[in-house]
Amino acid sequence: MMEKGIAGIESAVGVELPEHYRRFLLEHAQTLKAAKKKLPMRALLYFEPKQITEINRRLHDNPRMIEINEDSEPWPLNYFVVGTNGGGDFWMVDLNDPREAIWKYDSESGGVIVPSEYASWAEYMAAVERDLQNPQKWQ
């Protein structure tokens, strides 16, 4: 992804992305795109501006589209969706927190927001790289 794509996301959704997430997109979007071809069944973070924009634009337009805390509260708009596992959970970044952190919306636990299984972008990419070494698991 290029700066132009990131600027398009920010403009379309009306947010400023944290610097750590911007760097992640700039440095790893192409790797994720290649990984998707080799690992078609693996859930990967979004790497296309359209994917990122669509879900976040819809949440900004209708925060009740995904409700949290036992479906009692609207989606908190400071959480910006960066991917899904395909099973109803989402990975996010907190737009109000400059620290590198990846959060998870856990649908099976009543729609709570918890730290994700990845403590950093480097840890996430290490997991993707491990899976690329064993692609038959994801085909």
Please characterize this protein's 3D structure.
- This is SMI1/KNR4 family protein.
- Residues 6-108 form the Knr4/Smi1-like domain.
- Helices cover 41% and strands 14% of the residues.
- Helix 1 (3-13) runs parallel beside helix 3 (49-61) and helix 2 (19-38) packs parallel to helix 4.
- The chain has a single domain, classed as SMI1/KNR4-like.
- The mean pLDDT is 94.
- It is built from 4 helices and 4 strands, in the order H-H-H-E-E-E-E-H.
- The chain has a 4-stranded antiparallel beta sheet with strand order 1-2-3-4.
- The longest helix is centred in the N-terminal third of the chain and has 20 residues, at 19-38.
- With 139 residues, it is an alpha+beta fold.
- Strand 3 (103-106) and strand 4 form a beta hairpin.
Given the helix and strand composition, which structural class is it? alpha+beta
Strand order of the largest sheet: 1-2-3-4
- In angstroms, what is the radius of gyration? 15 Å
Strand content: 5-15%
Please work out how many helical segments DSSP would assign. Answer: 4
CATH class: Alpha Beta
CATH architecture: 3-Layer(aba) Sandwich
Q: Shape, please? A: globular
Q: Which stretches are low in confidence, meaning pLDDT under 50 for 5 or more residues running? A: none
Largest sheet: number of strands, sense, barrel closure = 4 strands, antiparallel
Distance between the termini: 25 Å
Pfam family, one: SMI1_KNR4
Organism: Gemmata palustris
InterPro entries: Knr4/Smi1-like_dom, Knr4/Smi1-like_sf
Domain Knr4/Smi1-like: 6-108
